[in-house]
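PT: before anyone asks, these are the final sequences, not the draft ones from last week. 622 residues across everything. Please model them as a single complex and drop the result in this thread when it's through.
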Amino acid sequence: MAHFSLSIFAFKNLRRKPLRTAILSLSIALLVAVTVFSISFVTRINASINKATERLGADILIVPAGSRGAAEDVLLESKSKSFFMDKSLIDKVKEIKGIDVLTYQTYLVTLTGKCCDVPDAVIVAFDQDTDFIIAPWLKEKLKRKLKKGEAVVGSESAFNIDVGLMEVDSVLFGNVFKMVGVLDKTGTGLDTAIFVSDENMPDIIKSGQSEIKPNQISLMFAKVKSGYDSSKVAGKIEDSIIEVDTIARKDIGKAMIDALKDINRIFLITITLACILSTFLAWSVFSAIANERAKEVGIMRALGAKESHITKLFLTEVVIIGAIGSLAGVAGGTALSIVLAKGFTILKNLSVDLNIIQRSIISVVGLCAGTGICVSGALFPLRRLKKMEPLSVIKED
Amino acid sequence: MPFIKLESVTKTYFIEEQKIDAVKNLSLDIKRGEFISIVGHSGSGKTTLLSMLGGIANPTSGAIIHNGVNICSLTDESLSEHRCQKIGFMFQFSSLLQMLTVKENVLVPLLFKTEGVTTDDLDRAVDLLKKVGLEDKLKAFPSQLSGGQQRRVAIARSFINDPELILADEPTGDLDEETEAEMMGLFDSMNKERNMTFVMVTHNSDLANRASRRFRMTNGIIKEL
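LR: through. Structure below.
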């Protein structure tokens, strides 16, 4: 019958000291909230970097010397930056052994009210003949190449310039462009960009409203031939051409990952200290509970309770406290990771948010951590409690 | 074969390095269905003897054989099962669990049985509480009861698992004369109708005289009266 069981007994025990139960649950909730927030923070950055590099589809990025950071800012964090190198470097890179295909892009930063009538964004001019970065998305959405005077916008930019339902005209660097489509979300910083064909560049340069000079590009994307190591090819490019820096695929976002390592360390230390503190708190609370209940446990043992019954009763209480605290912590940590993300520059500019599966996994980790710590703190008091000789604790009264 | 046989049972405590023999070389046979009373001064070893009979304390030496089984050699798990199925305890002190209602307190021993609490058990708990005159207190908590009422709940609880041996330590200590007589009537009927064996410790010589066999304990030594 469900009217009375060890679980109901455990629930009733928890209601004896509601304030103490609430404080312990709250401390577990805070620990779990910090854990969930930290893991969400780090996972989101890692996911953004991984997704961006995967979507770019290039093995090596070739950028002007000293512009690695700026390139990553544009590609990973949606920051508006421009940097240039001479277009003739394309031929030099092509000569490097191991390069399979190569394309280039030019990034121009718009300034509202000065050159353009769109909000601040990066205009990406790309070569449609060699491109393998934008082409797959364009083929899917537009089903044709861009014409001169046409532009497509990234999914995030579309919100800013009301594109999507109808074709609109915008002035970019003194030239009128017809916005003909919106790309699907790519998970890269290019989601906030506006894409035009490279054949528009002479007119843009002619307008004199951009800082770019003739025969300049911003970066090159290269794929290496099968059997070649992209890191070695990238090194060879840097050794041979002094005007460029390279970023191998696995190193894209490395600067951010390095910075993240320090943040990770801070989170790890905070979480470890919080875990130790919570374990001690759980231990002291459950030790107090064990002392209070010693006589009751003695009576129950005299009435026929086995050690396993005492364990089940005590652990049910512990798990309930841990689970309530952990659930609250998961909710709080998730809310924090969403709300506070808007206040962290590093997160604000990331294009990828965590999906439901990632959030679920982080929640499960939080739940296990909170409940596990509660159980760990209760193990010693429980061991002492169940090993007590019934008569000795009964006679203590 | 006696229902319970105590063979040279000794229980020694050490308090601040001082050796105290609470029970000394005690041998006793108890038949099934007997009602035994034990009188004696405080500290004479009565409660220690009851605790050893109920398996909540181990003798320092000797053996306690219950239905052919030496309970001193049982594992903790088997001993717990033995207590759950065969023993009913009435403690000297208030032994109710404060966060449980009267009815739940009576049902507690059944939580430790393998099959758990059944609807029949619920009815039986209510029936026992009627027998001790507390049918109107089913949902009350111990803190809402008088000492005597709490004692009666503990009496009802000791019968819930239909034990073959009742160990009662001053079971009527907090009761008025009328209720005491009613409880003793209940003990008699359980003893006769259900053939339950009673070992009762009391200071009350009138109550002790109602037993089929009477003993006195002095300084850990038992003597039949």
